[in-house]
Write a structure and sequence with these properties.
The structure is a single chain. The protein is α+β, with helices and mostly antiparallel strands and 396 residues long. The protein has three domains: 18-133, Orthogonal Bundle (Butyryl-Coa Dehydrogenase, subunit A, domain 1), CATH 1.10.540; 139-236, Beta Barrel (Butyryl-CoA Dehydrogenase, subunit A, domain 2); 245-390, Butyryl-CoA Dehydrogenase, subunit A, domain 3, CATH 1.20.140.10. It is built from eleven helices and eleven strands. Strands 4-5-9-8 form a four-stranded antiparallel sheet, with helices on one face. Strand 4 (158-162) and strand 5 (165-176) form a beta hairpin. Helix 7 runs parallel beside helix 9. The longest helix has 35 residues, at 245-279.
Length: 396
Amino acid sequence: MTDTLAPAAAEAALAAVFDLDALLAPGEREWQQKARRVARERILPVIEEDFENRHFRQELVPALAAEGFLGMHITGYGCAGASATAYGAVCLELEAADSGWRTFVSVQGSLAMSAIAKFGSEEQKSEWLPRMAAGEAIGCFALTEPEGGSDPAAMRTTAVREGDDWVITGTKRWIGLASIAAVAVVWAQTEEGVRGFLVPTDTAGFRATPIEGKFAMRSSIQCDIAFDGVRVPDTARLPEARGLRGPFSCLNEARYGIVWGAMGAARSCLLAALDRAMSREVFGGPMGRFQLTQAKLADMLLEYEKGVLLALHLGRLKDAGTLEPAQISVGKLNSVREALAIASSARSMLGGDGVTSEFPVMRHMANLEAVRTYEGTDEIHSLVLGRALTGLAAFA
């Protein structure tokens, strides 16, 4: 099960009931098929080994860059200027292989590159975006802190003005790619409120340490960062980023990708269960002939199809420029929650084999627990939706 997403018979059976490909425009489908090919040919043959060995295979970055996936929704500066729906379809295909690789594309493009594209000066854009789109420079997005990720307004990292420079002091945690990044987008408190800075990672006082002991995202990198009097010039400040609107707008870009990506993990688990039901012989016949098995498969299909259709709807809204943050919260909350439920049902159908690396299900389950936590927990998105419905903020 590690060299393809699923046997052809299971894929054909799923497509006969629900075929996302047919709902995509030709250009969107072209992006999707490129991502599916990269996932199958480059990621899947090595992902179980990399997950087991806690290895981020950095040599695959040029392959993703060559296909135009890095910052693909940004226009200009070497970026593809693709539609939001096309980007979502790419996220789905990459996460069908592994959440870690969709996370890489998300951190690089939706977070780091988006911050520069949205809030950077022309000089900053010209310096960094072409190199990042080409995979020659990796970026990270330093927002979350050890004391709590859900309350960025309480961040303790500070940037103090000293003449023409800024001196950054503090810590960040769970920062993807930081130990291999060339540049960090750093958010810090100043006398003027929260501001963003571009910090080359070879700057004195910057230290990124990969987090050990992870049971999820093992083929990806997340780090602790320490800023010990990191000094950068005022030209490192993102001139258009003022207050939390800056990082939140980037987070919404990443959350949108998760809406699609989690459904990719769900599809992988559903296909594994469907293949098992069609091929496994128990009690004198295929497992799929039993009513309980069919009921589980029907429920899994139902939630997968609803999740993908919701992602597609949000993609169309985003392409039209009408997507609201609360709608992204609907998608993120639903996609990850239902993907985990699908993975759990798939694991039960696989029996004892479901906890082995012969099947991708336990790897997806573990990864989805991390995806459920980052870019806003279930609780945070529930409160966002409660505020949108009632007009009353329940945040403490």
